[in-house]
Amino acid sequence: MASQPSPPKKTAPILAHRRSQTNWPLLLIGGAVLAAAGWFVWQNTRRPPEVVVVKEVPKAVEAPKVVEPETKPVAVVEPKTVTPVAPPKMAEVPKAEPVVAPVVVESKPYVFAGAALNDPKLPLLLVADARERLKDGKWEDHLVRLQKGLLPALAATSSTDGVERHNRLWESRAFALGMTQALFIRRVGAENLRTAAQGGEQLPALLSELLGRPDLLEKFALTLKVEDDATEALRVWARLVADDTPAQLGRYDNLQIACALVFDQPLRWSRFDGGEACSADALTRYRYFKTATEAGRLVGDVRKAPPGDLVWVVGATATEDEMSWALANPKLRSLSEWSPSYGLIRYRMDYVTQEKTKLAKPTEGTLKEIFELGGICMHQAHFAANTARAFGIPAAYVTGDGNRGGHAWFAYQRKDKEWNMNTGRYNDGYACGHTTDPQTRRPIGEFEVQILGDAQRRGERFAKSQRLQLAAQIFADGGNIEAQHDCLRLAVLAANRCLEAWRAYAACLEALGPKVKTDEWKLFVLEMRRAFDEWPDMRELADDMEAKHLFPTMTQDEIFLSCKRAYDRLISEKKRRGDYDRTRYDLIQKAVERESSVLMADRAKNAEKLASMHRRALEDNADHLPTFRALLEGYYQAVKGDSRMEAAFLSEMERVYRRKLGGTAGADVFRLKALAGLLDLIQGYFEKCDDVERARRLRLESEKIQKALDKMKK
Length: 714
Known about the structure:
Blueprint: H1 24-45, H2 121-136, H3 139-155, H4 167-170, H5 173-188, H6 190-196, H7 202-210, H8 214-223, H9 230-243, H10 253-262, E1 267-270, E2 277-280, H11 282-294, H12 307-314, H13 320-328, H14 330-333, H15 340-343, H16 350-353, H17 367-373, H18 377-390, E3 395-402, E4 405-413, E5 419-420, E6 434-436, E7 443-445, H19 447-450, H20 460-477, H21 481-494, H22 499-512, H23 518-531, H24 536-549, H25 556-576, H26 585-600, H27 607-621, H28 625-639, H29 643-661, H30 669-688, H31 692-711
Antiparallel strand pairs: 1-2, 3-4, 4-5, 6-7
């Protein structure tokens, strides 16, 4: 019978021995083995000597301080609770995040299970190891250790808990830090982080602090977009942090992130009048908003607004001098809501008609000059949007095409956080506006701005949806597509208007391939249409998924009926509209194109149905000149080369024009210009189809309208 080991007060381990004799060789070998094992355990569990335990805050990890005698550290900001922010852009499908290639990991995966979840040493170890990566650049290795440790923790949760399944894990400081570090490394990229670590004093110091702040890691990574220069954004952020006084540290985190993501590329613009080229830099813009906040002069709170909203503030296309002028303007300071700012600018009809006038002409194009001299819609929208931004209010300059030609209006975020999209918009077919994303400089549809104000995005369930998407990515990296599928299914259930979740869910279903039955795709399309019932843009995405994954299982007649139902719904919504016209003519055009493409698969067989469909579309939408123009081109392309169908096209085009559009302009200069352009287009189709006589008559009508316009110049 073996004897019990001696108490662990001795320096050398004692092996069990037989009573009769001592086996000295075996004892020596065993002692060496145990000594080696003890050293290994000590090395992997000991607290890094340079890390100092700091004050604990629930649901957040304050970065441990590292003694860096050669580098001035960034001052520690008071940690915050983990709060997700608005996700990246709406209109595009985000680029798939690359799956990290398998690498040989010499160190063990981190453990995020059991007692380790509440072990205060684990967050400190994560921070210390991540800071070591700033020196050796082995970010891929660190990411793999995180992913392999997070995966079993996520897998151990119960799917019966639904959208709440990971809540308890996120209550752990260690888990929150592990997930956000993994998110940050993946979104920023290992190579970018290696570059950033060589960025002088300020940038490595910022990264050193960030790596222990799950709240900031999450905010930055979720606001980052695929077009952003992550390295430059981090470099800008570091400069802004260095500009803070000790009293300001931690107060302007959100503003810093917004400035970093807008100014990762130069911000330049040209004024409307005078053509002066202008620019802004991150530090000057940041100081403007800090100073105005400290002085209590802003309407919006740039300290509390999420970075995704603040990019619509700091991206103002006005100089700091212009914005300072706006802050001092009594009429602007008296506004309780920003809609009246558009009407503060007197409309100058002489700009449109080119008539002679004694009114002063602009030479600078500044906000002050526009206020004093007036202008047209583009000046009104520019003034309203940028004075709103000067006061810290998210705003956008919006343009669109309607029955009166091109027009500009503006959108701004109200006090209830929803967006007012209609100030300055004509009630004449201007339901589809476009703006420029200040973060990416990319043109986007106005719905991508409006959806930022959706109340669901500010709720707790939206945050759950985002974190379920993060969990899905960990499962995907571990090769567990089924678990990824389950997480993404829960993500769309948690927040059914989270567009990113739907797109990720669709990509997952596609990755599963034949494992996904037709019924699941049908359910996907149905639920997405229901979720975005009031967002026709998103219904269009559901239509695209239907075309890709369900049309191959349907007959041509079934496909056509499905496309027709989508068109009919848009027309039905158009007829139900009230006084304010918000008809989505752009989506109507796409629905017509979809129907036409189905029939064009066998043009000879579907000739009559094709002609009937196009005739109906012209009749339904002749009230909107831009759409009518687009439909004419689609109709012509469908019949081109068939003389009989071409003749029917010409007759139908002229019939609808004479009955619904001819003589509708009156004395409206904008309508006259649009109608003259339409006549020129129609004339061109008659010429293409060799109907010279009718082309000549239309040319005379166009010339008559132009003479009326010329008289207005006198």
